[in-house]
Amino acid sequence: MKRFFCLTLIALFAMTASAVDATTQATMPESTGVVAKLPLVKISKREFRQKVWNPKESRRFRYKGTQPIVIDFNAEWCKPCKMIHPILEELHAEYEGKVTFYSIDIDAEASSVPNYPEDFAFDRIPAMVVIKVGQNKKPAVYRIGGLNKDQLRQIIDSELK
User: Which contiguous run of DSSP H or E holds residue 36?
Assistant: First the structure.
């Protein structure tokens, strides 16, 4: 009796597993490739002053770079920042060669210039700015916590037009 019960359970399990496998195969997209990611470039305040803008030289914003950039303002302790980070890495891979994505920990070197929250007028993170080549005014700051990849892409594309 035990043997019959065990064999019945095994047969039932096998039929269920094959039915689930068939259903999964029918609903899965054909290409389940891994999404490309490109790490964000961590930038210090010294590098920021050299590559982006030095408020010590001029309070008026003037982008120094030769390629559009996206800056992600974040902090180690920020859970929403950690959640959005992989999405930004995917977008960095999509825009590779066209846009550079920087990551700035606002707590690092907090007492030196620039004071990111004050200079870019934001009070919550994660926050993002998109800067075009030749931009001579401070960029708009976007609060990006909870946004999906398509929403972020829309912001980037609309700012780069």
Answer: none
